[in-house]
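FAQ: What does a ligand-bound record look like?

Like this one, built around coenzyme A:
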Amino acid sequence: MQEVHITIADESHFLYAEEICSVISDSAKVRGTGIAKRTPDYVQTKMKNGDAIIALSDDQFAGFCYIESWGHGEYVAHSGLIVHPDFRNRGLAKKIKEFTFNHSLKKYPTAKVFGITTGLAVMKINSELGYKPVTFSELTDDPKFWSGCKTCTNYEILTSKDHKMCLCTGMLYDPLRKKKKKEKWFNQKVLKRLKKIKQTMLANNKPLLLWKK
Ligand SMILES: CC(C)(COP(=O)(O)OP(=O)(O)OC[C@H]1O[C@@H](n2cnc3c(N)ncnc32)[C@H](O)[C@@H]1OP(=O)(O)O)[C@@H](O)C(=O)NCCC(=O)NCCS
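The answer part, i.e. the structure of the complex:
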């Protein structure tokens, strides 16, 4: 098995920006899901600012993720998680996310960490890191964050629900909330079922309350 190194990206990684964007967009097409569009310029800015994490095997691109700051630093999100198809199913996404999470807590120690995703793998990884599922009202109201959804194929659903819900599930980690024992609430079967119900109900335009605060 090839060895993979995970590191904080910088200018020396600019050459991977194009490939990162095309793997993200090709994977979204294969999954048939919506996704916020990223440009190589944007990815390079993240690298330059020390807000991107890259995984390489020798000089071959293996994976990527980046940090975004919202609501004047009150929130951060870890976005654009991607593992090259040649490196999937061997725990790399988990390692990249964990690396990003630790880097982000050092760089933005008081910021709440959140993500929105339709991906079960990401929900699983996030919950292992201590994120909790939340309604969109708990996430940033920074319009710049939500405008990232405009390039997603599900954007019409988000606007038709007044930005209160969509096919993505919101997840939040609050570093200032005292951590009790590591809670093992995650149940893959339940999450899969909830995702299915949510998709069916949103498609049929019915109201839905998934989690009560
Ligand atoms: C999703 C993705 C990042 C997973 O990468 P990976 O390196 O294969 O994931 P890992 O091997 O670290 O798996 C982490 C966990 O998720 C599970 N998992 C991985 N892919 C999965 C999938 N497609 N569906 C459900 N669970 C999955 C694994 O079984 C593992 O769980 P475990 O710890 O109980 O064994 C990768 O498939 C990818 O880049 N997909 C396209 C882009 C994408 O979907 N990004 C997320 C945007 S929200």
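Follow-up question: can I read anything off the structure? Yes, for example: The mean pLDDT is 88.
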